[in-house]
Amino acid sequence: MPTIRVELFEGRSAAQKAALAKEITEACGRVLGSSPSGVDVLFYDIAKHNWATGGVLWSEAAGAPPAPQRHGACRPLRGGAGQAPRPGPLRWPAPPPWPWPWASAASPSRPCCR
Hints:
two-stranded parallel sheet, 4 strands, about 15% strand, flat
């Protein structure tokens, strides 16, 4: 019934893959009600020079993905360790005017649907 695709770095042993396949098959049976003979697990070994995270190849990284970069729109989580709390409640933009400015009694409220 289900086909599960597992992508991982090269270097795992056949015994490790067999153990993972067994666990995945059992989980599919427990959660999906599948029979073990209907579960396919496909393993794809990928070289580190063929995988990039955050624009950096894993073969060039020191074994860990680069830290996510924050931009000005990001705010620290409230109450995080060493972080200032977010000031006040979030304010959402005002709702658009209603009825829409282009709507009139003679025209539909959505001009794209004439």
